What we know:
The chain is 66% helix and 0% strand. The two termini are 27 Å apart. α1 (16-31) crosses α3 and α1 (16-31) runs parallel beside α4 (64-82). By secondary structure, the chain is mainly alpha-helical.
Amino acid sequence: YADAPNPSPGVRMDTAAHRLAEAYTSLIERDFRHAEGVQHYAALLGVTPTHLSRVCRKIAGRPALDILTDRRHFEARRLLRDTNMQLSEIAKKSGFSSPAYFTRAFKSRAGQRPSEFRESR
């Protein structure tokens, strides 16, 4: 929720939308290493992917897929920086479905390939 706007003083934060967004982020934190998409998480939470994304956008300012992708990308950057694991292993441990997809997604977000990011550390 780091990018979410701060609520006004006295605004109650315990709404169904807040609880759903919090449950989603908890599931992501627990399971992001599995190559599951937003549909999977929405099903676990008993809502549609569209509803989940709408709630995330309302509460966190970002759609559900971006929150999931951000978490995976953060983990990949951490592993690239702090370990000497092979890129294929980092892709797997970060929840990407394949090393090729990991490379494309990483380059799209970071502006450089994972190997370039690692070399620049």
